[in-house]
Amino acid sequence: SPEAYVRKVLVNLANDRWRRLSRRGERPGLSGVPETADPRDRFGQVDLRAELIEALLGLPMGMRSVVVLYYLHDLDARQVADVLDISPSAVRSQLARGLAKLRDSVSGAQAPHTPSAAFGGTK
Fold first, then answer.
1. E strands present in 1-123
2. Which of 41-45, 46-50, 88-92 is most confident?
3. What is the CA radius of gyration of the chain?
4. Taking every annotated instance into account, which residue ranges of this chain make up the domain RNA polymerase sigma factor 70 region 4 type (predicted)?
5. Span 9-37, pLDDT tens digits
6. How confident is the model at residue 98 (pLDDT cuts 50, 70, 90)?
7. Closest by alpha carbon to 104, among 52, 57, 68, 66?
8. Class of residue 14 by CB neighbours under 10 A (exposed 0-12, middle 13-18, buried 19+)
């Protein structure tokens, strides 16, 4: 489908940019994320969101792509598999490993059960 093609192109462009920055010794972080006043900050959700973004950036590229497409773009396992050209079982495996790494990376008992919970998603 055209939508899957566009997603695949965007994922490939993002991965290429990440590789290019990594070769230069740079690592994209939160510098591009605007600091805004958010009423949820009083509950620590904004800090948790920033910590989760840093943890996502620490995942291997393929695993990060799977987690982001599944939880933040609300694609199902089959759609993620189509975009990344991998099997649905590989998607599920990468999701399980990625979530485990994210839980280990995000400190405290406030760690959300899923990444989308910290971003207000439904999965």
1. none
2. 88-92
3. 15
4. 50-102
5. 777 777 777 777 777 776 555 455 455 55
6. very high
7. 52
8. middle
Report field, pTM of the whole predicted structure over 0.85: no
At which residue do the structure tokens 């439904």 appear? Answer: 122
Structure tokens at 52: 């989760």
| Cβ pair 91, 66 in contact under 8 A | yes
With a CB cutoff of 8 Å and minimum separation 6, the contacts of 28 are 17, 18, 21, 57
Q: Give the C-alpha separation, 7 to 28, whole Å.
A: 21
Report the candidate in 38, 55, 28, 29 with the shortest Cα–Cα distance to residue 112.
55
Place of tokens 């990625």: 98
Pairwise CA distance, residues 2 & 6, whole Å: 6
Asked if residue 6 has pLDDT above 90, the reply is no
Q: Please tell me the predicted confidence (pLDDT) of residue 43.
A: 53
